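Hey,

The postdoc asked me to send both predictions to you directly instead of through the lab channel. I've kept everything plain text so nothing gets mangled by the mail client. Protein one:
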Amino acid sequence: MAPGTDGNLITYDASGNPAAVATGSSGQVLTSQGAGAAPVFAAAVGGLEVYASGSIFEGTGTIARATWVTLVMATEDSDSGSTYDKTTFTVPSGQGGIYYMSGFFNADYTTIGNNGELEAIRFLKNGSAVLGNNLNMRNTHTERNGSISTVHLGSLAAGDTIVLQAMANDGDGSDSATIFHSAFSIMKVA
């Protein structure tokens, strides 16, 4: 075997002779190319490779009754690669795959109406496709403050956009609701 370069690994070529695996970059992992080909260093796949999150911890704005509203987060808690703008997550180029999404919505009604206050939450893909259960709702007949959460695991392609939407309603239409606490997070898992 001949002298090599620091960081190279030794493998064997198709003839059974020693060969060097080219040195990778920091953070890369060694990936098999299968029988008959030398392994290569490549970017890690899955996990927290692409992620974003945002949150609201103070009351911000009134929700129009029985209308889906895209939630605009007050803070951007994390964002790998500028994929999130407090409203919309966009899958970056080359990062299609399986994503885990979670959302939380908390509405604060001006009074306790005892008449069917309702919260609903959903993920919207590319401006129109509802992911998960469109009817993920919770009725709070005697509470002034109501919360709901949702999760979704699904395939996204490069360029797809995801927003978190919420709706609040009052049974007799006499009450309004403030967006009180909300949170959104998304991460690539495979």
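Protein two:
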Amino acid sequence: YTPLTGAYVRDSERVRLQLERLREARAAAQKAGVKFSCVHAASSPSILTHPEAHLDAVRPGTVLYGLPSHPGQAPEGFEPVMQIKARVVHVHDGDGAPMGGYRAAAESEGAGRVATVPLGYGGARHLLRQEGGQVLIRGMRAPILGSARMAHVLVDVSALPGVRVGDEVVFVGRQGDEQITAEEAAARAGIPVVNCESLCLLAASVPRH
């Protein structure tokens, strides 16, 4: 097998050369008496764009999640299937008072109402370095206050009337007419937008459904 690196940068000539070398290597090995039950080369981007690379089998990854494999790719007929969600566990008036955390004073400035959401960088590692993070609550975007804690984030819900304990919070996914994509969440965390990285950042402790 071989990884078709050219497919991730849309370099068809590199893909052609890799496939040619793979076929040459297979032929040489077979001539030497080596038998192969399966020869494969195509992962998600080349499955969609290079049918000549399908060979005996393919290796779908991000395409199974309905996500593009590189920036600018929009696979027709695909929709993201993974969402990351939690629920509000506490709501309190901020009034600009310091909140618990290493940089509490700066983080609480201007927050009139604050919701606590029990997902932090211990469960979703991309939250550790996320800058300007947002979540969806009641179909609207709300900013994460400062840096994530290990087991929770604080969200400014001053502009969202009626937020209460139990409300659904979306970190990645759709709620109403709003959507936060895996690409957006990864970009805010400084992660290159090749979605397999962003999909691997959930700890085993986070329940899957």
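Summary for protein two, as requested: The beta strands are 40-43, 57-59, 84-87, 90-93, 113-117, 134-137, 140-143, 153-156, 168-175, 178-180.

Thanks,
C.
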